[in-house]
């Protein structure tokens, strides 16, 4: 069994001002994606400049934060937030939904595309390879917060998390998600996007791979206590929300290549 490092969730404390690692992970993810986007900018549109890219990053970051928080409230714990609406503002304690953030990003990209004369999928294909950086950073934030841990296990790399009232050795599922949703997904999309692909294919690959990775990890992750399992004693909310992503990803990839074949013919 491995020893949990027990890192203080507060990275810096200056009197009443506290900067949490969870928040810093979001800044690291957004900043790193911004830098990489700048390196790929001319391949995307030679007429774009850094100011246009900055606007896109702002819109996407807004979609991530607002969508992620509202998605968690709606999908995972609506009753608690109805009882105490002020909890919505306490983002540093966690409680962000990827699927909510994904919807928020799609809405932000659609609005941004209307302003800058870019199609929705052109923009989604551009930002999709950058998203895993933020996902991986967010999972490290979950690990530091000692939240979203996995089921009890006897594997040699199990850990006991300080926030676990039962103090059982558990799967460090946050690190599994970091490895899959962060590292593996970034490598797949970055390599896949290095060659020209039909519009929608990169977006479809993102949705497909993320959905599969998340669906798998949910088998060893403890479901949110207020929800538990939704069906069959194993189906979680995370898995349910990934099913349309997997199916949609397959559909987008097939349609993208089919449309390319028709255009070439």
UniProtKB/TrEMBL annotation:
Domain of life: Bacteria
Membrane topology recorded in Swiss-Prot or TrEMBL: Multi-pass membrane protein
Gene Ontology molecular function terms on file: phosphatidylglycerol-prolipoprotein diacylglyceryl transferase activity
Record localization: Cell membrane
Transmembrane segments: 19-36, 56-76, 96-113, 120-140, 175-192, 199-217, 237-257
Record: residues binding a 1,2-diacyl-sn-glycero-3-phospho-(1'-sn-glycerol): 139
EC numbers on record: 2.5.1.145
Keyword Transmembrane helix: yes
Pathway stated in the Swiss-Prot or TrEMBL entry: Protein modification; lipoprotein biosynthesis (diacylglyceryl transfer)
Keywords: Cell membrane, Membrane, Transferase, Transmembrane, Transmembrane helix
Family designation: Belongs to the Lgt family.
NCBIfam families for this protein: lgt (TIGR00544)
Role: Catalyzes the transfer of the diacylglyceryl group from phosphatidylglycerol to the sulfhydryl group of the N-terminal cysteine of a prolipoprotein, the first step in the formation of mature lipoproteins.
Record-given protein name: Phosphatidylglycerol--prolipoprotein diacylglyceryl transferase
Species whose genome carries this gene: Denitrificimonas halotolerans
């Amino acid at each position: 069994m491995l020893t949990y490092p027990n890192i203080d969730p507060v990275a810096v404390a200056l009197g009443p001002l506290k900067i949490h690692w969870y928040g810093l992970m979001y800044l690291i993810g957004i900043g790193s994606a911004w830098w990489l986007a700048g390196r790929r900018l001319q391949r995307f549109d030679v007429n774009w400049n850094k100011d246009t890219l900055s606007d896109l990053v702002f819109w996407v970051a807004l979609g991530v934060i607002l969508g992620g928080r509202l998605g968690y409230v709606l999908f995972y714990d609506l009753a608690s937030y109805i009882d105490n609406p002020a909890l919505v503002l306490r983002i540093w304690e966690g409680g962000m939904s990827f699927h909510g953030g994904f919807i928020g990003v799609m809405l932000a990209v659609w609005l941004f595309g209307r302003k800058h004369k870019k199609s929705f999928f052109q923009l989604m294909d551009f930002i999709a390879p950058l998203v895993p950086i933020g996902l991986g950073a967010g999972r490290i934030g979950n690990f530091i917060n000692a939240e979203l841990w996995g089921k009890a296990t006897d594997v040699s790399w199990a850990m006991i998390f300080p926030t676990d009232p039962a103090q059982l050795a558990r799967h460090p599922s946050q690190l599994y998600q970091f490895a899959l949703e962060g590292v593996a997904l970034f490598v797949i999309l970055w390599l896949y996007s290095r060659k020209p692909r039909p519009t929608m294919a990169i977006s479809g690959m993102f949705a497909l791979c993320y959905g599969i990775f998340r669906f798998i990890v949910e088998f060893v992750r403890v479901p949110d206590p207020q929800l538990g399992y939704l069906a069959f004693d194993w189906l979680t909310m995370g898995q349910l929300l990934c099913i349309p992503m997997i199916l949609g990803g397959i559909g987008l990839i097939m349609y993208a290549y089919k449309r390319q074949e028709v255009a070439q013919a």
